[in-house]
Structure formats: C-alpha cells, structure tokens
Amino acid sequence: MAYTTKFVEVWAGDVLNRPGMLARILEALTEAGATLELLIGRRISERTSRVFVAPLKGKKQKAAAGEVGLVPAAGMHALRIEGPDRRGLGAELARAIASADINIRGVSAAVMGRKAVLYFAFKTEEEAKTAAAVARKLLRSAGRRR
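^ that's the sequence the OP posted. Answer follows.
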C-alpha cells in the first residue's frame, strides 16, 4: 500500500458544554449525507468546547454544518496522509516538516490495523503545500528503502 497525501478543508465550531450538543451536530451532518473521517472535540473552557470535522462535500453538507454553527476553520490548512503504519512514522514526518522550517499548528493521528491516518494542520496554504512536498519526498524514499 502506497501513501496518499491530500489537502482537506476542516470545519469547526464552538458549542456549549451540554449533553446532546455533539449529537445534534453529528445528526445534522449525517442527515445531510456526510461521512466523516475526522472528528475532534476539545474543551475550551468550563462552558465551551470546540468541534472539528472533515470532510464535508457539497452544498447540502456545508449548509447543514452552517446551521449547527460550524464554519471552515480559519487559518487551518490541513494535510491528510494515509498509508501503512510503521514505528516512528509520525516522528519522521514531524522532523522532516520541522527541517523545512514549518511549524505544525495541530496534529491528529490514528492507526486502524496496519493503516495510519495523520492530519497535520498549518497556518497558511503555502506551509501546507511545502509540508506536502516534504512528506511525499520522505515517504517515497522510505518506500524505496524497504
């Protein structure tokens, strides 16, 4: 299995810390036909949490997101990397990106079986594009070393 990299638009919104708020968002997106690959929820304060989701496709899904208070995450340019998991993959990618003098604004990763999926967030589109090129080069050369 080869690695794939792609840019993803992440949507985000702040919600009150109350039972059912996350369910309300997810139900609206499900009704609109969304199949989420990324869902992150983080407490911001005693009263508020922030929710991140991706991907949203088409007008219907994006309209549903807007109706529940989600908007495209401003200043977050996300890169999704998927491929075979291996020990040190995250460290190698983080070091390669740092070596290109790019700050990683956020990261989320998971492994399912032997497949890893990593989302890296950057402040600018230019940083995300450069990070993608760095990641592709690293992953191609790692594939040749096997």
